[in-house]
# Entry
Amino acid sequence: MPQGQIFKAISGFYYVRTKEGEELECRARGVFKFEKKKVKPLVGDWVEVEKISEREGVVKAVLPRQTELLRPPIANVDQAIVVCSLKEPDFQQMPLDRFLVQAEKEGLDIVICLTKHDLVTDENEVEKICTVYEEAGYPVVITSVRTGHGIELLQAYLKDKVSVFAGQSGVGKSSLLNQLLPDLKLQTGEVSRKIGRGRHTTRQVELLLLPQGGQVADTPGFSQLSFQGMEIEELGACFPEISKKSISCRFRGCLHVNEPDCAVREAVESGKMNAERYQHYLQFLQEMKEQKRRY
Ligand SMILES: Nc1nc2c(ncn2[C@@H]2O[C@H](COP(=O)(O)OP(=O)(O)O)[C@@H](O)[C@H]2O)c(=O)[nH]1
Ligand SMILES: [Mg+2]
Ligand SMILES: [Zn+2]
# Structure
């Protein structure tokens, strides 16, 4: 039976790209289950299809998922491109760190993309930002859709992976997608208007094929920026540099706040870890504690 991946789902139809490169319009039959839970096929799911005509098929089985995003609902996303502008709006570390935690929590590979390089007047500023995040363990790509700077490098990171773009509104996500997929023509620079509520108007996500291989979701991912559903003990693992250092903390389960012999605090005090990143860790920890108290 041919295997393929769902790249689009519209009112009961699943559009599947088979390994042979065919696109089939499919209905789903039967109940699909993972670990005894019923599941509905999602965009991104690998499925087994039975061909019933040249262009039609039936989804017979959904293969186990590697990852599962809720917003937008996509299975098997490999990578988040976390986008932040260098100018207009000015670079802000706090929202970037929030998006990074979110992507880490989902278990995605991460690439940081710093946009609007053409508006930068002080290269030293850019250098400093890059150093902070490269030292934390992230690949950083600097782009401009005006000059084309960094686009090839970004394409190299996207190759052969399923990626979602994430980041605040106005940082240039749609502009980047338009650059990567010239046929796409997403609106840019518009304050996105809330579309009606009913299920008929639900924006459908689609996985688009990149010319050089790989796929991207045509809508940004995880704009939900609370830490709901996350345990306080998990936060450290969402900061790669904290995760690495914490092995040397005296206590297992050290939260790196005021425990004795904390390797993370020592790293911050001796300048080996970025102090702002650590401050953001503490702030997120606080927010999570307050959230817990409220529920
Ligand atoms: N100068 C400059 N402006 C950009 C760049 N990328 C996006 N913009 C502008 O930034 C604004 C927001 O871009 P958009 O792609 O809609 O951001 P999104 O909300 O993240 O999708 C638009 O006016 C774009 O023209 C860039 O590389 N350089
Ligand atoms: Mg946009
Ligand atoms: Zn510690």
Summary: The longest helix spans residues 275-294. The two ends are 48 Å apart (CA to CA). Residues 197 and 218 are 20 Å apart (CA to CA).
